[in-house]
Amino acid sequence: MLSRIQDVLHESHRILLPIEGYQNERLMTLEEAIEPLFHIFDRISLRSKVFIAKERCQESADGLLQDESASIILYTYDWDISKSSLYFILNETLRPEDRRNLQNRKPDSTDARQIFPGA
Description:
119 residues
């Protein structure tokens, strides 16, 4: 938890341009959305975390779909090594001011829509 609090030290404190276009993509299942992440995370471990997250939110009281609630759990899940967590890696990927590389990575932009439902 302390690493998340200290994570703000890596922020540039500059307002960044929004990442546009992903909101128009088809909303995938969480299982589909994590597939492009298998080169970063262990496939079995990530699938296991998704399964657990979906089990924890079978009945959503907040009006979100199960996959939407599970994606929030997956993003906020406290992993054994915080620097290898989805939270840490996604935030590190989105921090740079130069967003041109993100636009060339279309599969990941769809992942962002799953991770941030309603955005």
